[in-house]
Structure formats: structure tokens, C-alpha cells
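Raw record, unedited: DUF7847 domain-containing protein
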Amino acid sequence: MAVLKALRQTPSALQRNPILFAPVFVILLFQIPQLVLQAINPLVASVVSMVISLVFIFIMPFFQAGIVGMADEALDGQTSLESFVREGKSNYVSILVVSLVLVAVNFALGFVAFFVAIFGGFAAYSDTGGVGIGVLVIIGLIVALVVLAYLLVLFFVQFYSQAIVIDDLGAVGGLKHSVSVVRHHLVSTLGYSVLVGILGGIAGGVFAIGSLLTSPQSPSTLPLPQVSLAGAVGVSLLVLVFGALFGGFFGVYSVAFYRTINPGATDGT
């Protein structure tokens, strides 16, 4: 099974190439100021978070391409940061284009869901102040369909970066190839997505706990221990290390799985 085969290949590739954790570590370093600032000034932390999110839109394609390239090499033997830079440069534009398209799709679907909920909410109340149950059901169905459409888009195009880097395709070709590969391996990809979703949920929980520990606590919030500035730095570093380990594992595992289900990849079957 592709999911298990890729899972077996990942640890040995990481053991041979611990350098794979370095790019992920650098990405997560950007999160340290935000976590530390939460313990000092949550408002400033929110502004910094917004700025970092905008910057990430333009720098993540480079890291994404570089990590995929390194992981592809690591599964066959050795890799290096030179490969990271080379693949990042050569595939940056293609992955950036797809990333911007996905951001636009995300925004458009979110925009539709938001206004359907808002205007539908007003329409749900009749002149007598009663709630139209039928209208609420229709609103719920529309929002659910929008969410489902978004998840389906992500499901089918999730391997675009692997297709662009490993199969040397452009932005459009990468999207098409990802859809084709997933379409021919629906069950395996569903299993992979469920496993990644579970692992991602665990990682997200760790980050959430770290964020809560570094945020000022009020009497109405959860009874979490207060941490000093030094404690916030320590918690942030622990989250950073965990995130680097998870990110490195996921980077290699996603490539290993793609190579297993993709007939054109180096290790395809």
C-alpha cells in the first residue's frame, strides 16, 4: 500500500539527511517574534502575524520547491542545501503562480460563504420575527457545498509542487498532473490525506498550546500557568523544534507518497 510504503521510506531518508530539517527550522524562526510578543503586547503580535502571513505568500514557494527537491534526492541517497537553493530558484515562479491562484480561490469561496451566511441570516427572519427553518437549511447546505468544493480542490491539487519540481512541469501542468495522479489513486490518496490530517491536527494542537502559554491569561480563560518573558522564549523554542521535526517528516513523506503513486516519478510503480 502506497501510504505504508512511503511511511517506511521516510525515516531512513531523514536519518541519512538531517539537513532536511534546516529549511523548515528557518521558516519557523519567523514564528518566534509572534509567540514572544504575545506575552508582551498581543495587539502588536497580531499586527506582526498579519505582516508575516503576507510575506510568507511570496517566500514560501521558494522553500516549498527547495524542500521538495531535497526530499526527492534524500529518498535516493544524499542531498544538500545546494539542491534546496537550486530547486527553489528554478521552480519559484511556477509554484508562486499556483499559490496565488489557490489564495484567490480560497478568498473567493470564503467571500461567497460569508455573504451567503450574512444575507441569508437576515432573510431567515420573517416580518413577524420568526426564523424561517427552511431558509436556514438552504443556507447551511450552500455553505456546506462551498466548504466541500474547497476541500475537493485542495484534495486533487495537493501534489502540484511535487509535480512541478520532480516532473519538471509548469504551473498549469503541475496542477493538471496532480489532479490526474490523485484521480487514478483515489483510495490511496484519501488514506494519505486522513493520516496527514491527523498528524497535522496533533501538530496544530501543540502550536495552539504554545500560543496559549505565551498569551496573557485573564480570569475568564483556561487556568494555564503564567510564563515570564524567558519562559515564553523557552516555550517558543520547544515549539520551534517540534515544528521542525514535523515539517521535515511531512516534507519527505509527501514526496515519498507522490513518487509511489506517480508512474513518471523516480520511484513510481
